[in-house]
Specification:
It is a single chain. It contains nine helices and seven strands; from the N terminus they run H-E-H-E-H-E-H-H-E-H-E-H-E-H-H-E. It starts with 6 loop residues before the first helix and ends with a strand. By secondary structure, the protein is α/β, with parallel strands linked by helices. The protein is globular and about 55 Å long. The chain is 48% helix and 18% strand.
Length: 187
């Protein structure tokens, strides 16, 4: 199962634009060392051109880069922040979420857990479904199938998760059509 889905980048940026129609500057917090992140960045750039959004790349390769990236956001004042999923951005989730709240920056994450931890929204594959599908692969391998003979699959279920408490704290109104499309709304 692969979670490298570069087409998600454009969808996440479009969702930000739906929540903040006047957004013209978006910071992207990402780790270029993470698998699939460079392709996500390319796709985000392509979507930004189509949506007429200026992107601010904030690369984080190790923990010392996090404070520098947050300081840059304070100076440059983007209208929103997208955070690509990685071990580093997940480890520093509480700091990133707290910073975004204090700076009143709407956030788009790539993991449901980020929204459950007070991020504004996420759009991602349904991890529970993917893990259940992983059980199928384990079963096949235990029954003798060589891992190299199994196809690489892509998730087919995606979920939009919104946090209304965070929206209220940021002074952001989530449009009703988006609320109706949400798979989960955190109160």
């Amino acid at each position: 199962m692969t979670f490298a889905l570069p087409e998600m980048a454009g969808k996440r940026l479009a969702l930000i634009k739906e929540v903040i129609p006047k957004a013209s500057r978006v910071a992207v917090l990402w780790s270029p060392d993470n698998e699939g992140a460079p392709l996500d960045w390319e796709q985000t750039q392509a979507a930004a051109r189509a949506l007429e959004i200026e992107l601010q790349s904030l690369e984080v390769r190790d923990p010392k880069d996090i404070p520098t990236a947050l300081s840059t956001m304070t100076r440059k004042r983007p209208h929103a922040v997208i955070t690509f999923p990685s071990a580093l951005t997940s480890a520093y989730r509480p700091i990133i979420v707290d910073f975004a709240k204090k700076q009143r920056l709407p956030t788009m994450f790539g993991l449901r857990a980020d929204v459950e931890a007070s991020g504004l929204m996420s759009y991602s594959p349904n991890a529970a479904d993917a893990f259940r599908r992983g059980a199928y692969y384990i079963d096949r391998i235990l029954k003798g199938t060589k891992p190299g003979d199994l196809p690489i699959e892509r998730p087919d279920k995606f979920e939009l998760v919104l946090n209304l408490k965070t929206a209220k704290a940021l002074g952001v109104t989530i449009p009703t059509p988006l609320l109706l499309r949400a798979d989960q709304v955190v109160q």
